[in-house]
Design goal:
The structure holds 2 protein chains of 2 kinds. Chain A is an all-alpha fold. Chain A has helices at 16-27, 35-53, 56-73, 83-101, 108-113, 129-139, 143-154, 159-166, 170-191. In chain A, 66% of the residues lie in helices and 0% in strands. Chain B is mostly beta strands. Among the domains of chain B are: 116-156 and 165-243, Immunoglobulin-like, CATH 2.60.40; 511-612 and 786-791, no CATH class; 628-784, no CATH class. Chain B is 8% helix and 49% strand. In chain B, the strands form 9 sheets. Chain B has an 18-stranded antiparallel β-sheet that branches. In chain B, strands 17, 18, 19, 20, 21, 22, 24, 25, 31, 34 and 44 form an 11-stranded antiparallel β-sheet that branches. The longest helix of chain B has 22 residues, at 70-91. Chain B is globular and about 90 Å long. Classes of the chains: A mainly alpha, B mainly beta. The interface between A and B is large, with 120 and 151 residues.
């Protein structure tokens, strides 16, 4: 395997948006410069899509579509920055197209079942019965609420980025997610009272 | 029975819940290769729709669109450049620059705008229907175009469940006579954006925005058919200065290296950011400048107080729609001037001097070099073709010494394997130059599907390959290879300084305290070495000392809770958050990306009434230096096979080992090992310990610092994957069965176990034999908290 590095691999800056802007600028002119952008977001995009479609085949196909569309659409992505919100807008559009063909019916519990834990350093994931119970609580939330959780915890987006995607302010998004966590906490307590 | 959960543990559990599904490594690798083989980034234009949408271009949902020739964009850029050149020629550079100061205003969200002969809104105009507000923030009617900024508020989350890029609403401006102007470009995000229309007739001051639907909102979700009347005024009064920050042009703010000049041509200080308009001019007509931001580090702005301001991006949009200008003749003159605006966090009003720092400038160069490779009549994977090709590309002597056909194994779930080929070129090391770096090359050759290139700063090495999709035959005989493009970087740092006009004479100057404040717990002392108070941040430098030496602070305690509680509070209970990343402070003005010291923490500025603050540090990590050596025999006949979990890479069976390790007071027993292929050509040897005793005193073994590793063939190269750690694991062998209703059928609730692992990257093959793994220390996390009281003057 030949691995091609470029400047972003050596970038030590920890700010996503600023770094994205640098890479986007380069990638507009050289598709190989898109690689660090891809590497940064491939896992969040895949996790998000997997949490929606519940199987790796579809998640992989959709992930491919998203990144190819992003690469070909970079030239029309304006002004740099907030790349994540733009990328996940594409992801959500691809999902809508997907759902037109395959209506969603995948319970989150099946998603969990298909991704069993592994004790290796690559699979150090807390994965116990409590998670299963939590998944069932999440599955009973309205889809728009689940979407907020997916964007926060699967896509690993910041409140500001989620806000841009769902048309809310950063503060309103943070509050909405805070309320959701509170709701889950209360549901948990009710179930175990 | 589940344990009670609070919000923080639910948050942690949700993270675990949603991150159990990682993409398969082979899928990631394959998609990356596929992306690399894509052609140059292109825009596209719809060529088969007969309506005016024919002239609209969108970057999203491009369905049936055809490639958009980049030359049109180049033509537009050329036109702008020519206009500038003509302007400068007519009125002379000095007068032109002076005039620019008068013409240009800074409009947040748009950038620097020529306000000469414009009409504007004096105030934003809003309209609310069914709780949803559409607000026209500004309309700038310029001689050449009309720009309309808008925002919307009150939409429900349902409103953003998706939109159809093929059916975006087309805005119009209705003129007094009833005629309308169609929008020509749109830059849209949820909740805001701007449209560009053709210029208004000169005598028009009353217009109406017609918007069939809020942009990016699906049909029938929100009120539609918006009509917003707007009244404009000529931009010729003092009221204009109140609307927009007045930009200024710093005198003499320029720097020249190697016939390239970086100049600051405008600066504006808005409430939300500081905008810096840069101009780069160069002499070489073959260079096509495309990126101000080269090198390793992002641009920063530094002030004389020690603040470092990082780049912000307020002008982005999710969707861009623009009208395609019909192509004119291809440009025959090169572009040799480029202007670009960079925005930063707002600077301190008491700063007197600013310095823009760019790490490097990058230029794109069209090349016309060529060479041949004779692959013979029957080329095969693994064949090596010695070369002695010497090119002069963009002024760089490039010596290709070898070409090699390599097979890239890409595994696809479920079990599908593809084997695309690369013709990899070996390039002789180039002499290092402080003035230029050859950063990339692009190749084209018949029979190949593209090229891949990149530069490793760590190795100072250019990489280059031609790509061949799986199934495509390897070209035979002599292959003509064209070198069509190169990019070079001019390393800096490029620094341009200027004095701020009208800095505040009084204000909060940075105040650095050296408080004699410390707290000791568990034989570890955490002290505040320095604390600097500015109007932008509160910068705190901690020191951690222990019997073992220095250490670093952590912002959470206890692996089982991960409760984050590094905090700063004052005597009135006001809590100060970790500061926004966009402003930092360092006594030397060091750029933030170079500050790699976890003991430097930036909080938000203190309230002026704060007289005493308390810093609470939840945990620290200390390094204990001690050496030990493990010896492991890798047995023969270890084979890798696909993991049962398709999301995980191939691995071997575990085999039992019995390797004790005593280090830093810890008795470890490594009891099993296995191999795992994390990427094709990257095999890890992994050792796992027996369970460690659960800490009773808040001291967690967290890191095993691996030094040299020697294998049967000698010293192994260093690798990021060669490392050791300790933490919480699920016990091995647990198989969970989850029913469709979400309940666990096996009823097991395995506790986490506390174990250590060591991983060693073996490269592309696991050679049987004896390995010696040297450890040179451990990292201990020690839980606190340490509460440090600091009195303020």
């Amino acid at each position: 395997m030949v691995t091609f590095l470029n400047r972003a691999n050596s970038e030590t800056c920890d700010d996503n948006e600023a770094l994205d802007a640098v890479i986007v600028q380069a990638a507009r002119h050289d598709s190989s410069a898109f690689v660090p952008l891809y590497r940064r977001y491939v896992n969040p995009v895949y996790r998000y899509l997997y949490s929606r479609v519940g199987n790796s085949d579809d998640a992989e196909d959709l992930t491919s579509q998203v990144f190819i569309e992003a690469l070909t659409g970079l030239a029309s992505y304006r002004e740099q920055g907030r790349f994540a919100a733009w990328l996940f807008t594409i992801a959500r559009r691809r999902l809508i197209d997907h759902y037109r063909q395959f209506p969603p019916q995948q319970p989150l519990s099946r998603v969990i079942n298909q991704s069993a834990a592994d004790p290796s350093p690559l699979g150090q994931v807390a994965h116990n019965e409590a998670l299963t119970h939590l998944a069932s609580l999440v599955a009973h939330l309205d889809d728009d609420k689940q979407e907020l959780l997916r964007l926060r915890f699967a896509a690993d987006l910041t409140y500001a980025e989620i806000g841009r995607l769902v048309g809310r302010s950063e503060a309103a998004t943070k509050m909405a997610i805070h309320r959701l966590l509170r709701q889950l906490e209360e549901s948990w307590e009710v179930d175990h009272a | 029975m589940h344990k009670p959960m609070n919000q923080q543990t639910i948050e942690t559990a949700l993270e675990a819940l949603y991150t159990t599904s990682e993409p398969a490594t082979d899928f990631v690798t394959r998609l990356e290769a596929q992306l690399l083989s894509q052609q140059q980034v292109r825009t596209a234009v719809d060529s088969d729709r007969p309506t005016r949408l024919r002239h609209w271009l969108t970057g999203i949902g491009m369905g049936r669109r055809q490639p958009f020739p980049p030359s049109r964009l180049a033509a537009a850029i050329l036109l702008i450049t020519l206009l500038l050149v003509v302007t400068l020629s007519i009125i002379g550079p000095g007068r032109a620059l002076a005039a620019l100061q008068n013409w240009i205003g800074y409009v947040p969200g748009i950038g620097f705008v020529d306000l000469e002969n414009t009409r504007l809104l004096t105030t934003p105009i809003g309209q609310t229907r069914d709780g949803i507000t559409l607000r026209v923030e500004q309309l700038i009617a310029k001689p050449d175009e009309t720009v309309l900024l808008f925002s919307s508020a009150g939409l429900s989350p349902l409103a953003e469940t998706g939109y159809d890029a093929e059916d975006l609403p087309e805005p119009q401006l209705r003129l007094p006579g009833g005629t309308t102007l169609m929008g020509s470009e749109s830059y849209l995000s949820y909740g805001r954006g701007h449209y560009i229309f053709p210029p208004l007739p000169t005598d028009v001051y009353r217009i109406t925005l017609l918007l069939p639907r809020l942009p990016l909102v699906p049909v029938s979700i929100a009120p539609e058919n918006w009509e917003v009347p707007l009244v404009l005024r000529p931009a010729d009064g003092e009221w204009v200065a109140d609307l927009f920050p007045q930009p200024y042009q710093p005198v003499g703010a320029e720097v020249t290296h190697n016939d390239v000049t970086l100049r600051i041509i405008g600066v504006a200080h808005a409430a939300g950011n500081t905008a810096v308009r840069t101009q780069v001019r160069w002499a070489d007509p073959t260079w096509q400048h495309y990126d101000l931001i080269g090198g390793r580090y992002l641009p920063i702005l530094r002030d004389d107080l020690g603040h470092i301001y990082r780049q912000t991006h307020e002008n982005s949009s999710s969707v861009a729609v623009m009208r395609v200008v019909e192509e004119t003749d291809k440009p025959s003159l090169p572009e040799r001037t480029r202007e670009e605006t960079i925005t930063f966090a707002p600077v301190s009003p008491v700063a007197h001097e600013l310095t823009l720092v760019l790490d490097a400038l990058e230029f794109d160069i069209l090349t016309n070099d060529a060479f041949t490779v004779d692959l013979g009549l029957n080329p095969q994977v693994g064949d090596i073709f010695p070369l002695d090709v010497r090119l002069n590309v963009a002024g760089f002597p490039v010596h290709l010494t070898e070409a090699r056909i390599a097979e890239v194994v890409e595994r696809y779930h479920p079990g599908r394997i593809e084997r695309p080929l690369h013709l990899v070129f070996t390039i002789a090391p180039m002499a290092e130059s402080a003035q230029r770096v050859l950063y990339s090359l692009r190749l084209e050759a018949n029979g190949f599907n593209g090229s891949s290139t990149g530069y490793s700063f760590d190795e100072n090495q250019l990489r280059l390959a031609l790509l061949l999709n799986e199934g495509s035959p390897i070209p035979r005989g002599v292959v003509d290879v064209q070198v069509t493009r190169a990019s070079i970087q001019l390393p800096g740092p490029w620094q341009v300084s200027w004095t701020l006009p009208g800095s505040a004479e009084s204000g909060m100057q940075p105040l650095t305290l050296h408080p004699d404040a410390a707290s000791t717990q568990n034989n570890v002392t955490v002290s505040v070495a320095d604390m600097t108070l500015t109007d932008r941040v509160t910068a705190v430098q901690f020191h951690v000392t222990s019997n073992h030496g220095s250490g670093e602070i952590r912002n959470y305690a206890g692996l089982d809770s991960m409760e984050r509680n590094l905090s700063l509070t004052d005597q009135s209970g006001r809590r100060y958050q970790i500061a926004d990343w966009t402003v930092q402070w360092h006594p030397d003005g060091t750029r933030p990306s170079e500050i790699d010291d976890p003991n430097w923490v930036m909080f938000t500025p203190l309230n002026p009434l704060a007289r005493q603050v308390t810093l609470s540090v939840p945990a620290v990590m200390v390094t204990v230096k001690e050496t030990a050596v493990l010896e492991l025999t890798l047995p023969a006949a270890i084979t890798l096979y696909p993991d049962e979990n398709p999301m995980l890479p191939p691995r071997s069976d575990m085999w039992p080992i019995n390797i004790p390790l005593y280090i830093a007071g810890y008795d470890l027993l490594f009891s099993q090992a296995w191999l795992q292929e994390i990427n094709p050509g990257q095999v890890l040897l992994i050792l796992e310990s027996e369970e460690l005793p659960w800490p009773q005193n808040g001291r967690w073994l967290r890191q095993l610092h691996v030094g040299q590793v020697t294998g049967p063939n000698g010293l192994l190269p260093a690798s990021d994957w060669t490392r050791g750690s300790a933490g919480l694991f699920d016990p091995p062998g647990i198989v969970r069965i989850v029913t469709s209703d979400g309940s666990a059928a096996n009823g097991l609730e395995p506790p986490h176990t506390y174990r250590a692992t060591l991983s060693v990257e073996l490269g592309d093959s696991a050679t049987t034999g004896i390995y010696h793994i040297q450890l040179n220390g451990v990292g201990l996390q020690i839980d606190g908290p340490w509460s440090i009281l600091v009195d303020l003057p």
